């Protein structure tokens, strides 16, 4: 595999796992809002923990640090600015979800519906974000990066990869269990569950 192929595979896989996790969250939140599912707080907090630990702490900073700066002055600066701002606003979005989850645990009226609404906003925000990266940033990188750029991007992204990524085996039992729960919830092709 060339460094270009390796870098692209890691980035796309990290997007795919984040998309799967957000999709699982949306699925669960919707079912809770219509009373089809009672809240599984362990699962909900695990999903939030995962998003904070991997996409937030590792994926976005790698994009900001090694991917975006190399694409400056190639006609997509505005998109890069937008994406950088979205990385910054992603964490407050998560804080809102955590607050609402706390309200749910306290049985505050309307909190479950509010949570589903916030999750849907959060999911929309992520789909738009990833679409911009896959539709504009990665094609531009393919167009302008030198082999040295790809080597550096690949080396950087290969560090601390997402434990949920395809082919990664994680030695933590917690992650193995989390992964098993998720694949039951998320529809094909990522998971084995069925979307209702
Ligand atoms: Fe991003
Ligand atoms: Fe990304």
Topology:
Blueprint: H1 3-33, H2 41-67, H3 77-105, H4 111-144, H5 147-158, H6 173-185
The structure holds fe (ii) ion (2 copies).
Output the keywords.
196 residues; mainly alpha; Four Helix Bundle (Hemerythrin (Met), subunit A); 6 helices; 74% helix; elongated; binds fe (ii) ion
* Number of E strands: 0
Q: Helix/strand/pairing class, anyone?
A: mainly alpha
Distance between the termini: 38 Å
Give the radius of gyration: 18 Å
Overall 3D geometry?
elongated
User: The CATH topology is what?
Assistant: Four Helix Bundle (Hemerythrin (Met), subunit A)
How many DSSP H or I helices?
6
CATH secondary-structure class: Mainly Alpha
CATH superfamily: nmb1532 protein domain like
User: Sheet bearing the most strands, described?
Assistant: none
How many separate structural domains? 1
Which molecules other than protein and nucleic acid are bound?
Answer: fe (ii) ion
Mean pLDDT: 88
* Helix share, percent: over 70%
> Unreliable segments (pLDDT under 50, ≥5 consecutive)?
none
CATH architecture: Up-down Bundle
Strand content: under 5%
Give helix and strand order, one letter per element, not per position.
Answer: HHHHHH
């Amino acid at each position: 595999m060339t460094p270009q192929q390796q870098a692209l595979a890691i980035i796309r896989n990290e997007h795919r796992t984040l998309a799967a996790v957000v999709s699982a969250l949306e699925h669960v939140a919707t079912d809770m809002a219509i009373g089809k599912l009672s809240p599984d707080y362990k699962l909900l907090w695990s999903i939030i923990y995962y998003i904070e630990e991997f996409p937030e702490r590792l994926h976005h900073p790698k994009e900001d640090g090694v991917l975006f700066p190399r694409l400056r002055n190639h006609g997509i600066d505005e998109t890069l600015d937008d994406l950088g701002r979205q990385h910054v606003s992603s964490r407050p979005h998560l804080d809102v979800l955590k607050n609402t989850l706390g309200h749910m645990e306290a049985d505050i009226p309307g909190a479950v519906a509010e949570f589903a609404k916030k999750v849907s906003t959060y999911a929309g925000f992520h789909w738009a974000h990833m679409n911009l990266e896959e539709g504009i940033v990665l094609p531009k990188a393919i167009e302008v990066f030198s082999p040295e750029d790809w080597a550096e991007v690949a080396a950087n992204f290969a560090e601390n990869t997402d434990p949920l990524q395809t082919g990664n085996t994680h030695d933590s039992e917690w992650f193995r269990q989390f992964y098993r729960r998720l694949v039951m919830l998320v529809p094909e092709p990522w998971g084995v569950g069925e979307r209702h």
